[in-house]
Amino acid sequence: MLAEGGLAPDFEIDGWSLADALKNGPVLLAFFKISCPTCQFAFPFLQRLADGATSGSPPIVAVSQDDARGTKQFADRFGISLPTLHDAAPAYRASNLYGIRNVPTLYLIEPASPIEPSARISLAVAGFSKAHFETLAERFGTAVFRPGEPVPALRPG
């Protein structure tokens, strides 16, 4: 897993490239597998984050390690409408570039700037962390968790 503060490798999948997306500002990448129970738990919270995001919030781009059919079934089952890329087996090009060993893994990528000439990772988290989701909620200008909703502090991926 790549660390916070490190360089964010560029990649392209089906005509979508991270470098092009970063021209509009930060991007939150969310790597997952449909069979992962922690992904099934976390992705509805990511959808809430996207649904409640204020204008100018980073887009959330899901990166599935599964085929299109299975990923669509996952999205339908869990109410996910995030833009989704398919990091196809056996190469898993993007997953390998980012050192994915566990899913879900989230990376908030900040674009290059005059001060920082390369895209950087400002948040990197594997598994589900309530504290990290709360940090993202502040950044996105929305609430993720409902009052009184029982949410564990951590759930490993």
Any chance you could write out the topology, listing elements then pairs?
Layout: E1 12-13, E2 16-17, H1 18-22, E3 27-32, H2 37-52, E4 60-64, H3 68-78, E5 84-86, H4 93-97, E6 105-110, E7 120-126, E8 128-129, H5 130-140, E9 154-155
Parallel strand pairs: 3-4, 4-5
Antiparallel strand pairs: 1-2, 3-6, 6-7, 8-9
Helix pairs in contact: 2-5
Describe it for me?
The protein is built from five helices and nine strands, in the order ββαβαβαβαβββαβ. The chain has 157 residues and is α/β, with parallel strands linked by helices. It has a single domain (22-142), classed as Glutaredoxin (3-Layer(aba) Sandwich). The protein has a five-stranded mixed beta sheet with strand order 5-4-3-6-7. Strands 1-2 form a two-stranded antiparallel ribbon. The longest helix has 16 residues, at 37-52.
